[in-house]
Amino acid sequence: MYSFKRMNIEHTKGRLLVTSDIHGHIEHLKAVLQKARFDGDDLLLIVGDMLDKGPKSLETLRYVMKLCAEGRALVTMGNVDYLRLTSIKYTIDNPENAQNFLDYINYMNEWKGTCFYKELFNEIGIEPSSTEAITENIVAVWEHFKEEFDFIKSLPTLAESEKYIFVHGGIPHDESELQSECKDAMKYLKSDAFRDSALRKGFRFDRQVVCGHWPVLNYGERLCCSPLFDSATRTISIDGGCGLVREGQLNLLIFPSVDCEVEDIEYIWYDGFPTVTALQEQEESKDAFSISWPENEVTLISLKGDVAEVEHNATGKRLLITADALWKDPSTLKNGDVSRIRQSTDFKLSVNVDDTLSVICKTSAGLLAKKNGVVGWYFGKYE
Asked: Within 10 A of 27 (CB to CB), how many other CB atoms are there?
């Protein structure tokens, strides 16, 4: 029902604004566009994953569809968008899949409080709380939202210009594969740790490859949500973790023109966190340690209210984390118990007086915060 598609970007009169992985956070999208002063001469390119993991997937989709109809936006397919399209059609054709369909809704509902499918069923007055509710109404959902599903189905796998390729996941091997006749679209939509894979294989792409999908803070020794420009592979990773990780932000690249030089690209972001002003300086810590996905299993050393000391099972390193970073309920854990954790770090931010910090979490030990996209601790005074 979906096959590999390419799209050439034809835009000559203004800036190209590029984002990805909105995941139902329409307020983040509108806020970052307002921050960029998005106007009629600009073109917005969304590099996949408009849906799920956020509160308003359907509203986000319809807003993006409106921008596209006005000629102000282009969208490429993301793996989540692809799966939301194919999973509902598969369940219509295979009613025995209704339990898996329901399990997904329940999983997302528990994790994020809602999901795209739940929004669809609810809009036509149905609560998808049983396999019977799904099998009896799923065709009605498919037909009622025909315009939305047709839009998703129409999305290209990648967009390209003379100097750039924009693709959600990555390119499986190198650009020569783009010339082959048979291509598995999913390989381009879901390419975990794409930049690291390219580094290991020694790939340096002919054109700059701009991709989302893999949150940037999963790369590197520090937790940083800002876009990663990697000259060794000629890749630009832009997924700021919006809707996926608690530190997340929605990144927006600003190209003065479609085929500008990489050095001319700027970026901004929006994260929605409250901010404080630092009143004291703090020196950056040396030899900081961070835990990201997927090696995130730790052993609890001690729990003191809203913070915990843990030992990283893979390396034996110890660090201070916020108690709510533990996947398991802290009240159920005792010293020596094992749990997975969210992305965490013991890095102390470099802070000057009057710096603005985005507050991720206030604790009795200090602030877990962000400065210019970098996640770390601040132990000074603030207002």
From this structure: 16
Omega before residue 294 within 30° of 0, cis: yes
Nearest alpha carbon to residue 83 among 55, 118, 48: 48
Q: In the chain, what is the straight-line distance between the N-terminal and C-terminal CA atoms, in Å?
A: 55
- Between 59-73, 170-184, 277-291, the lowest mean confidence (pLDDT) is in 170-184
Q: Is the confidence at residue 221, as pLDDT, over 90?
A: no
The pTM of the full predicted model, rounded to 2 decimals, is 0.94
Residue 94 and residue 303: Cα distance in Å, rounded?
Answer: 48
Give 371's strand partners. 374
Q: How far apart are CA 351 and CA 220, in angstroms?
A: 21
Please report the pLDDT score of residue 354 as a whole number: 98
Tell me what pLDDT residue 178 has: 65
Residue 229 three-state SS: strand
**pLDDT tens, 274-292?**
999 999 999 999 888 999 8
Task: Show the tokens assigned to 340.
Answer: 């997975």
* Strands 297-304 and 338-340, sheet pairing: antiparallel
Nearest to 274 by CA among 365, 383, 350: 383
**Paired tokens of 206:** 């002919």
107-116 long-range contacts (CB < 8 A, ≥24 apart) are: 108/52, 108/53, 112/52, 112/53, 112/54, 112/55, 112/243, 113/55, 114/55, 114/57, 115/52, 115/57, 116/24, 116/51, 116/52, 116/57, 116/58, 116/84
Domains and CATH numbers, the chain: 7-78+155-270 (3.60.21.10), 81-151 (no CATH), 276-378 (no CATH)
DSSP secondary structure letters along 330-361: GGG--TT-EEEB-SEE-PBPPB-TT-EEEEEE
For the cut 60, the answer to whether the pLDDT of residue 94 exceeds it is yes
Q: Characterize the bridge pairing of strands 290-291 and 297-304.
A: unpaired
Contact criterion met (CB below 8 Å) for 163 and 259: yes
